[in-house]
Task: inverse folding
């Protein structure tokens, strides 16, 4: 380790400080492992040198941004060097006419959103972690969020990347243009690659004009059947809401207890809709949703002022802290199904948990079929955990049966890799691992992530 420190220090800031090692040992998956060193590069050249030395020596390198990932992507499970990119935090350019931003990977996503909004532009992907997570990590997981139904996820906004390959070679992918089919689409390959194929040191992002107006409605349901009818009707509305969110009764009860709003806990479900765009269109589209949801039996509240909209979103925003406080031991997954099967999947989640003697809760992005599905544990002991894991596997299988996928936005990394064969055939996995071997012949960059047994 001392040799490694002596090797790296002339080329890149590196430390073995206990605090730095502890901070770099975990993310928001709850998994942890201690690295040997933490490197904090400031330039593409420094990243390239670390990776070249990693190949020659060899040693393992794990890219890390803000450490808010949910699946262990930044956890150095095999030790080695954590490459912390948070010092590369410059917004290099915002070109208003081209509607492009060029940033380093350590820029916080919320900071980027704020900076472009000041210029009348908008960066739509909005994970709930936006104020804490960094662009580099969000690109590496193709993060999404509430606005996915209308605006998509990170992968729809990355125009180009500067990537340090695992060998230390530096390439640029994509272009500054809206269109480009020059060669293979390597940009898309790197987005969502969870730190296994290269380290992004510069990211070019597409921006959109800031919408003129936005309005929100909250539809409260008193029974499950009406809520199901409501979601079905909302999905048939001839408009694309920016957000179409669903919260089930158990999540509402947890929020009600957490924030002291007992009336929320008596409801069977909450559906939230937000429309944005030109003011007239927003009013018209939101009215279509209001009519559909009211006809299904909802009590509807509507707001267009920033303050009023904030109040309607309060219950949805409180879910994560409320549920974490009540069930610190739980499996929280992010399966995605075709959006017309969203309500069915929520029902299946509860059925499966019940069959395993457990409870579940579900909420998420009904507009794009992405369910945040939690299997809950009260004790979190080995026996209960084993049962919950079986339930999670059954939830994954059911989501796949319905035409869905294991992960909508968090990724696979460590927590879901054992389930990968449920979705990807052996030939598919072999093709993906061949790409990994071609780019990373010595298997030094975040080895073992995504693919079990690799
Ligand atoms: C409270 C909370 C709410 C969340 N809400 C959402 C949500 O709504 N939607 C959503 O999609 N996700 C959500 N997430 C998880 C989400 O994956 C992360 O917030 C974010 O995408 C990761 O960013 P990060 O900077 O923290 O990356 P990290 O956790 O540091 O890293 C994530 C992955 O990216 C890789 N990586 C990091 N930097 C680079 C780089 N420069 N080059 C190559 N690879 C790199 C790492 O190796 C790792 O595999 C949430 C997390 C929390 C804790």
Result:
């Amino acid at each position: 380790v001392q040799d490694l420190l002596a090797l790296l220090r002339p080329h890149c800031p590196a430390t073995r400080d206990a605090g730095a090692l502890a901070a770099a040992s975990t993310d928001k998956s709850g998994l942890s492992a201690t690295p040997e060193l933490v490197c904090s590069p400031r330039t593409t050249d420094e990243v390239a040198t670390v990776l070249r030395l990693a190949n020659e020596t060899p040693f393992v390198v794990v890219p890390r941004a803000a450490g808010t990932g949910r699946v262990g992507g930044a956890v150095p499970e095999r030790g080695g060097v954590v490459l912390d990119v948070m010092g590369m935090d410059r917004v290099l350019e915002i070109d208003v006419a081209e509607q492009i931003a060029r940033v380093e990977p350590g820029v916080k996503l919320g900071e980027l959103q704020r900076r472009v909004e000041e210029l009348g532009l908008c960066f739509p992907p909005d994970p709930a972690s936006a104020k804490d997570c960094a662009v580099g990590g969000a690109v590496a997981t193709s993060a999404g969020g509430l606005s996915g139904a209308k605006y998509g996820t990170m992968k729809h906004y990355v125009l180009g990347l500067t990537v340090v390959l695992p060998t230390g070679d530096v390439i640029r992918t994509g272009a500054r243009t809206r269109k480009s089919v020059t060669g293979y689409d390597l940009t898309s390959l790197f987005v969502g690659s969870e730190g296994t194929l290269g380290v992004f040191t510069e990211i070019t992002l597409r921006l959109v004009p800031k919408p003129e107006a936005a309005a929100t409605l909250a539809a409260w349901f008193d029974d499950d059947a009406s809520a199901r009818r409501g979601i079905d009707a909302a999905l048939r509305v001839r408009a694309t809401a920016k957000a179409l969110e669903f919260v089930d009764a158990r999540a509402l009860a947890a929020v009600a207890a957490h924030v002291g709003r007992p009336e929320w806990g008596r409801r069977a479900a909450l559906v939230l809709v937000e429309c944005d765009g030109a003011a007239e269109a927003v009013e018209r589209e939101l009215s279509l949703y209001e009519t559909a949801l009211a006809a299904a039996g909802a009590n509807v509240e509507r707001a267009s002022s920033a303050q009023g909209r904030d109040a309607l979103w309060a219950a949805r925003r409180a879910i994560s802290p409320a549920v974490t406080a009540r069930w610190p031991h739980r499996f929280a997954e992010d399966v995605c199904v075709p959006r017309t099967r969203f309500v069915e999947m929520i029902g299946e989640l509860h059925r499966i948990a019940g069959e395993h003697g457990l409870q579940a809760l579900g909420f998420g992005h009904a507009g794009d079929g992405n369910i945040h599905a939690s299997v809950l544990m009260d004790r979190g002991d080995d026996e209960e955990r084993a049962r919950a894991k079986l339930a999670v596997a059954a939830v994954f299988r059911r989501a796949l049966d319905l035409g869905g996928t294991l992960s909508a936005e968090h990724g696979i990394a460590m927590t879901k890799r054992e389930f990968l064969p449920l979705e990807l055939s052996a030939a598919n996995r072999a093709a993906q691992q061949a790409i990994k071997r071609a780019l990373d012949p010595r298997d030094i960059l975040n080895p073992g992530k995504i693919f079990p047994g690799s």
Observations:
- DSSP finds 17 helices and 18 strands in the chain.
- Residues 27-28, 62-70, 73-74, 85, 105, 127-129, 133-134, 136-138, 140-141, 143-145, 194-195, 199-200, 320, 409-410, 413, 446 surround flavin-adenine dinucleotide (CB under 6 Å).
